[in-house]
Specification:
Layout: H1 9-17, H2 27-33, H3 77-90, H4 99-104, E1 151-153, H5 155-162, H6 168-176, H7 184-188, E2 203-204, H8 207-210, H9 215-228, E3 238-241, H10 249-262, E4 275-279, H11 284-295, E5 303-304, H12 311-323, E6 333-337, H13 338-343, E7 355-358, H14 370-376, E8 383-386, H15 395-405, H16 413-428, H17 434-451, E9 455-456, E10 470-477, H18 481-491, H19 494-500, H20 507-519, H21 526-529, H22 559-574, E11 579-583, H23 586-599, E12 603-606, H24 612-623, E13 631-635, H25 636-639, E14 650-653, H26 660-667, E15 679-686, H27 690-708, H28 737-742, E16 769-772, H29 782-785, E17 793-800
Parallel strand pairs: 3-8, 3-9, 4-6, 4-7, 5-6, 7-8, 10-15, 11-13, 11-14, 12-13, 14-15
Antiparallel strand pairs: 1-2, 10-17, 16-17
GO biological process, one term: reciprocal meiotic recombination
InterPro entries: Helicase_ATP-bd (IPR014001), Helicase_C-like (IPR001650), P-loop_NTPase (IPR027417), Rad54_N (IPR013967), SNF2-like_sf (IPR038718), SNF2/RAD54-like_C (IPR049730), SNF2_N (IPR000330), SNF2_RAD54_helicase_repair (IPR050496)
Family: Belongs to the SNF2/RAD54 helicase family.
Amino acid sequence: MATSPIPDFNVARATVNKQPGRRIPSLESLNRLHKPFKCPGSFNFTLTHDRPARKRKRVDYKSADVIDYDSDKIYTNSDRLALATRDVNRFPVFQAKEKGLVFGKAFTIPLQNKQSVAYDADRPRPTLGLRQGAAFIPKPLHDPSGEFAIVLYDPTVDDDAKVEEAPCQVQWEKLGSSLGHKSLADILGINKNKDDQRRRVPVVLDPKLAKILRPHQIEGVKFMYRCVTGMIDENAHGCIMADEMGLGKTLQCITLLWTLLKQSPDAGKPTIDKAIVVCPASLVKNWANELAKWLGANTTTPFAIDGKASKEELTRQLRQWAIASGRSVTRPVIIVSYETLRLNVDQLKHTKIGLLFCDEGHRLKNPESNTFTALNSLNVSRRVILTGTPIQNDLTEYFSLTSFANPDLLGSRLDFRKRFEIPILRGRDADASEADRLRGDECTAELLAIVNKFLIRRTNDILSKYLPVKYEHVVFCSLAPFQLHLYNYFITSPDIQALLRGKGSQPLKAINILKKLCNHPDLLNLAEDLPGSEVCFPAEYTPKGTRGRDRNVEPRYSGKMQVLDRMLARIWRDTKDKIVLISNYTSTLDLFERMCRSRQYGCLRLDGTMNVNKRQKLVDRFNDPDGDEFVFLLSSKAGGCGINLIGANRLVLFDPDWNPAADQQALARVWRDGQKKDCFVYRFIATGTIEEKIFQRQSHKQSLSSCVVDSAEDVERHFSLDSLRELFSYRSDTCSDTHDTFKCKRCKPNGIQSIKAPAMLYGDTSTWNHYVNIGLQPIQDLLLRQEYGMAGVSSVFQYISH
């Protein structure tokens, strides 16, 4: 076999050099290119003994100028690589680390200050590469075994209660089914994904709230939480908080709201993202203040719609709030009035709302109203109604509140009326037969069994443990002589007689004239309202239209005004107390204001004409102990709900309302949390007049409310449902027509009480202490004691809280 000739590289180089642009590499360079590349790192560095073992050449500076041509030699590529390797090892810039050390090192967050609160060293470490992630251990937000721990949900207790054993038939069907294509784990019921399911954790109240809640408030928060989370009924997520005024409903609701916004049985997840608080316009600012007070100024930022923004700006803000979700929700709580929400409900009806609070929820008593329809259109299932008086006029209103909180709980309105309302009302009538009463009691018990699961109501008796004593009085005031003449003249006039015969068409106008006349004759335009009444004028009386600049009020022309004038003078002279004067008429407030100015009493006034933003400032000014004003004039419609006037310890409700709930709201303004002094409350009633008839009708409604809501079984059936004719009458031969209807056995014929009531029931004035004018000397209140022997107060009913 012929051998291949060995190429002559010198010849090849000479040949190639003749061809411009081409070079043949040397043999050394070819060998170097075929060797595997090694990184000059920490594992393939050149050892010291591999370096040229030669001493450093001494330099002879004397012969430095001698040129040594023999030392010149060709600088090869090998020399260059040797120098580079030597310099790298002498001055290392980077040395690659072993991969085992790099991938096995624990990950740490690159923070400058790892000692801060925001850094959690115990958090699960992130997964690197294909390494299996660390197991996440779910923990509750607050320690359930802490000092102030109040547990609303315990998975070890509440979840076990929901487990129901499957019926036997279902179990046999499962056993009889085909076992094909099933693994052994499926047949044995072993859940392989059990570790993947996140364990449920306890829901614990925030300790900063838990340590300030009173026992009845803790009970209320637990009740509401169980209702709105479906723990009582998975198909019902609403409830009614019907505590009487002053028990802290607002604080209980704030606690529930804060808990749902921050916690749920799933660790790290909230129950809700958004909530709406709807309330009267006068309480919007108060709700915002209460949130800041109990949660902290910077804890949560509510969206309080106070009327300052324009319509276009409000629409834009509501749309932004509606589309926000998750972490983009910066203001989770809207506080808005009923009127504003009704007008802007279209911007909110398509967003999911976690919770809805309806403060003073008796505004939803009419299911046909625009307000009820607007709120019912919101996409929210958790609904909490706050009201101190769930029954105001009839059971239909009570049904409306219940059906709003939990739709379909009581069926349709017609079903409710047939099943509950008619039998209960028949049984409550004073003329009812024994069968009707038994039937009414049965229907009442059935209604309570259904509704009480979603309704909680506590009375003011609880407050006796925390608040000073409250003395509440119904003060019956005789008419002044001028009032009496005008009253008799009007009810005997031809127009009223025609009305009583069924020929009149304006009974409401006549009723309003009598109600205003009971306050003061100056509230009427006598020439128009009582034509021909000039024959009743005393010689010194000047009609208000002919007085010119003389705007002074004459209390002597009104029995109630005389009593009030003496009370204010005694307070100003002998005490440091403050007093609230409430009326249903702004014209009556005008009389109060003029009387205070003429007596040089400092006073403040709040009515419907005042801007909503200024109301809270006015309230704070009056509650200041160092304030100069000791009289606060309040319209029952504008400020009767929710306003705290604890700066005063006396209150006068000058005229009654047809709705007992309105009066109860007004009477609860001073005896509330924060009150430090004994409270004295007075309800003025003109003796023998239409006001007594109104008060008696209120008593009937209060009796109905006690029966259905308070479950009181000993409320007496005193009154029948009277006709309109009884309103237009006057009894001059009595100290109190209401007391006469009681047929009280504890009082002597002269009216002096000889036997105290065994127990006072707040909703039943027949169980209160009864006084007549000649028996006022032992009464506890100094303002009423001074009325002894004076014309004005004819009778007094007294209730003592504890």
